Amino acid sequence: MAAVILLLLSSPIIGQQQITVKTGDNVPLQCLYPRGGNIKLLEWKRSDLKEKRFIFYFRGKPLYKPYQHSTFRGRVELKDPQMKNGNASVILKKVTVNDTGTYECRAANGGRPELISIIDLTVTDSGECVCVCVEAASCLSV
User: Fold this and answer.
1) Is 1 a domain residue?
2) CA proximity to 95, closest of 61, 121, 120
3) Residue 118 lies in a domain
4) CATH number at residue 57
C-alpha cells in the first residue's frame, strides 16, 4: 500500500480542459509544470495528427523547427518565454476549424517528459461571410 501512495505522490497532476473558440481567435493553451524549477524539455502535440511532429517543441532553445508540424509554424509561441514558475503554456494564433482536436503538454526538468495537461479544443466557424472571386467580373459567397 505504501508503494501505491508513493507512486501517486510522485506523479504530476494532470489537468484536463475543454475550450471552445471562434475562428481567428488567439487561444492560450494552459500547462503548469507542478515540479517548478527550470523546464529543460517541453512538448506540445495534437494527439490526432497522423504526422508525428509537435505543435511546439522546446529543448534548451525556444523552438526546434524541424520537429514542428508545418500547419503550426509561425502560429505558436510561449505565453511566458522565461517559463517562470513552471508556466509552459502556449498561445495558438489565428485558429481555424482545422485546429479542432486534443492537445497534450508534456514537460521535464531532466529525464523523461511527463504528461501535464490535456486540452480538448473546439473551433467553431465565426459566421463571417467569405467571398471567393472566380472571375474578375463575379464573386461567389461561400
Assistant:
1) no
2) 121
3) yes
4) 2.60.40.10
Give 38's pLDDT tier (boundaries 50, 70, 90): confident
d(Cα 41, Cα 89) in Å, to the nearest integer? 13
Domain annotation covers residue 137 = no
pTM above 0.90, yes or no: no
113-124 confidence digits (pLDDT tens): 999 999 999 999
The verdict on residue 136 lying in a domain is no
The rounded mean pLDDT for the chain is 80
- Which domain range does residue 25 map to? 11-126
Strands 15-22 and 114-124, bridge-based pairing? parallel
Residues 91 and 76 sit within 8 Å (Cβ to Cβ): yes
Provide the 10 A C-beta neighbour count for residue 90. 24
Q: Which three cell numbers stand for residue 46?
A: 495534437
Beta bridge partners of 91: 28, 77
Domain count, the chain: 1
DSSP 94-112: S--GGG-EEEEEEEESSSS
3: helix, coil or strand? helix
